[in-house]
Amino acid sequence: MAEVPIWIIGADHWPRALLRAELIERGYDATGFATLEEAVRRLMLPPARRPALLVLDRRDQVVDERTSALLSSARVPILVVADIAHPRGETLAPVVEILHRPVTMGSIADAVDRQIGRRQERDATGS
After folding, report:
1. CB-neighbour burial class of residue 2 (10 A; exposed 0-12, middle 13-18, buried 19+)
2. Could you report the per-residue pLDDT of 72-105, keeping only the tens digit for each?
3. What is the pLDDT of residue 49?
4. How many domains, the chain?
5. Residue 79: CA atoms inside 13 Å, Cβ hemisphere, count?
6. Is 124 exposed, middle or buried, given 0-12, 13-18 or 19+ CB atoms closer than 10 A?
7. What are 3-13's pLDDT values in tens digits?
8. Which of 123, 115, 118, 99 has the alpha carbon at shortest distance from 23?
């Protein structure tokens, strides 16, 4: 089975690096980005290898209307890690799951496993 590409977006270097290491240990092709803007720019480059999932740490990330629209049109599922005070009504499509702090790297990686498993099940059944 080919490695599944996962993109991790987080401003803090060490948490991003630790999650990337955990996902690599689990067999994913994990790539880290410091900013959402950097990841979106890379997504728009042809022929970018599209990630199966974006893991977005909302801390210190700016999501304007343009970025939100680009993410929506890219149709890459997003797993969000947010503070408890994160506004729940804010729209960022296509979010598949939101984890609220405090969380461990293991629980984030487990959420990635769940989401990738669901996606592979949908792909296998064609739904």
Report:
1. exposed
2. 888 899 999 998 765 554 556 689 999 999 999 9
3. 79
4. 1
5. 20
6. exposed
7. 899 999 999 99
8. 115
Provide the domain limits for residue 94: 5-125
Q: How far apart are CA 71 and CA 36, in angstroms?
A: 10
Q: How confident is the model at residue 1 (pLDDT cuts 50, 70, 90)?
A: very low
Q: How far is CA 83 from CA 56, 58, 88, in A?
A: 12, 8, 10
pLDDT cut 70: percent of the chain above it: 83
H/E/C letters for each residue in 1-59?
A: CCCCEEEEECCCHHHHHHHHHHHHHCCCEEEEECCHHHHHHHHCCCCCCCCCEEEEECC
Nearest of 69, 117, 112, 111 to residue 94 by alpha carbon: 69
84 is written with which tokens? 């408890």
- The tokens describing 64, both together, are 């304007």
Supply the CATH number for residue 10's domain: 3.40.50.2300
85 burial via Cβ count (<10 Å: 0-12, 13-18, 19+): exposed
